[in-house]
User: What shape does this take?
Amino acid sequence: MNLDLIDTFLDLLETGNFRRTSERLETTQPAVSGRIKTLERAVGAQLFHRGKMGTVPTPSGIRFEKHARALKASWAHARHDIGGLEQHDGPLRVSAQFGLTGTLLLDWIGEIRATNKRLALHLEASHSTQIVADVADGKADIGLMCAPQNLPDLNIEEIGAARLVMISTEFEYLAEVTPEKYIQATYSTYIERIHSEVLPHLTQSAITVGHEELAVGFIRRCGGTTYLPEHILGALADSGVSARRVKGAPEIQQPVYVVTQRRRKHDPFVNLAIRALRTVVQRDCIDTARRETPTDN
Assistant: This one.
């Protein structure tokens, strides 16, 4: 595999200029041109249009980008996989939704390490859509998220539910909370829907936040009232923020899902990791009971 060709293609795709690409890759313009011509012969299609307005990808070049990035990722994974065989088992690539990295993911990884200290782990944090795509493409072995998208050949299992509670630096009782001083949590479609059902009078708030970390940062800097995972109260207290759980406010239970490829269901490391996740879910403050909730449209 000639990765120089792939690297040159991807860099030229970004710069749109042979000179800049040659400078960035510390080579000559003729060398860059030669690599692109070699790659075009190999794939059997012209990848770039060259003209006075610069270098732009052809339709074939645009389509080839995803394959080029997949080739780089596969090569990197192969090197990591083969190169670490003597020292480690695996590797196992785990990707978790941003809002789950601070607690559930870390507890899960701790349980995995306690079960098999030789297992090499690669951890990522991303949005649920990207995680599903990465699992489907084989870039991640296991995904942990709150809002999975159904794709062929994926196994999606509800592993439990994280409890979200209303916390506030201002109010003690739900009856005191007004839309003008409320931050509506829109972390997922599920949370938005349940929130509108149980607290319709607070859906017209002046501020909405789509990410838990943003909500935490806002509370730390400005104060306020919003829904956050229950464990955040302790973290806020540790950082000097005086916040309390609002009395009378209902809990919102956000389902948490684990996603794997169906063909990996007998993989021993994937199974080890999922067993460890179930152990953490049962041990920690996460509801494992099945719930009757309205189905998303």
